[in-house]
Amino acid sequence: MATIPRILNPMLDRTSQGHNFGLFEDLTQYMFHVPFLKAQCPACFFPSVGEGKANLNVMGVGSGAGEIDLEMFSQLHLKHPAVTVDNQVVEPSAQQLHLYKVLVSQKPNLDYIKFTWNKMTATEFEKHWRENHLTKKMDFIHMIQMLYYVKDPGATVTFYQSLLDRNGKLLVILVSDESGWGKLWRTFRTQLCNTEISQCVTTGDIKAYLDSKTVSYQSYKLPSQMDITECFTEGDQRGELLLDFLTEVLDFSSTAPPELKRGVLDLLKTPDCSKEVDGRVIFNNTLEVLVVDPLQ
Ligand code: SAH
After folding, report:
1. Distance of alpha carbon 161 from alpha carbon 158, whole angstroms
2. Spatial CB neighbours of 134, under 8 Å, sequence gap ≥ 6
3. Are 264 and 247 in contact (CB under 8 A)?
4. Which residues face 116 on adjacent strands?
């Protein structure tokens, strides 16, 4: 079966809040995020930034446990063994930061990277940056599956873009507008997208924002799919968890009004969201990468 890149992770946060999400762990074992990205998006790993520089300023916003960040650095190091890195990590979750630090401590030969840990949200970091009148320019900033969690994704993109050096790049990855997520969110925006935790933002929204500001960027689709067949079996534990994941509603199956539940299940089965393969329902989980240029 195709890999499932990490999708949204408020469910992970809920795990840490004491809910029993053993099953969710079961789901996460299917997420081969790093190999997936490596195979499908070589450009994600340091698009030609900072050519010729001896030291690169890098920033990960919402880096999670840092698996992707460290893989990016190891690719960079292979190509440019003499380059050193100043890496700012902006990550509000203490648990994720801890996991990142553990990963760093386990990997040998990371001496060429200087880590600065910022236990902050993207917005808190922006405030910190402004209050301290910091002026350092960045060669590479990435926000991978993160912009769902900020109040104003457009303003966040613009602020971080303003930190880029002349040849810097800002990498954004989100689900694409044409994915099943896009259709689900457009159809049930009022019912599913009014939470405090996350916005139903796709790369379509970010591209429209960038276009309105005549900002240049490149984009790449990352086709990806997810088997959601169990969602349609009443009482199936994995199916119910998947439904929670898709709707970002805890215990959706038992808490959603019946007409909403029916509407969501019907929509998930339509060609706008899924295709049927050998009797399985395969959800379109296509992601999109935007590589954004600096402000002119
Ligand atoms: N980039 C990582 C993790 C993605 S999950 C990867 O792709 O593997 C989203 C991450 O964003 C989580 O680690 C979460 O703690 C973090 N996050 C949530 N709200 C945030 C915010 N307001 N600002 C910055 N990061 C945030």
Report:
1. 5
2. 128
3. yes
4. 88
Q: Give CA–CA dist 117/274, Å, rounded.
A: 40
CB 115 within 8 A of CB 91: no
Could you tell me the CA-to-CA distances from 246 to 111, 251, 269 in Å, in that order?
Answer: 40, 11, 13
Pairing assessment for the beta strands 274-277 and 113-118 based on DSSP bridges: unpaired
> pTM for this one?
0.89
> pLDDT digit string (tens) for 198-207?
789 999 999 9
Closest CA to 12 of 245, 264, 285, 294: 245
pLDDT at position 231: 96
Mutate to test the pocket of ligand 1, among 9, 98, 146 (most ligand atoms within 8 A of CB): 146
For residue 96, give the ligand 1 atom closest to its CA: 13
Pocket test for ligand 1, best of 149, 159, 174, 198 (most atoms within 8 A of CB): 149
Please give the number of the atom of ligand 1 that sits closest to the Cα of 121.
23
- 272, 286 contact by CB (below 8 A): no
Whose C-alpha lies nearest to ligand 1, atom 25? Answer: 62
For residue 177 the two structure tokens come to 């507008």
Q: Domains, the chain, ranges and CATH?
A: 18-176+193-225+286-292 (3.40.50.150)
Q: How far apart are CA 178 and CA 272, in angstroms?
A: 8
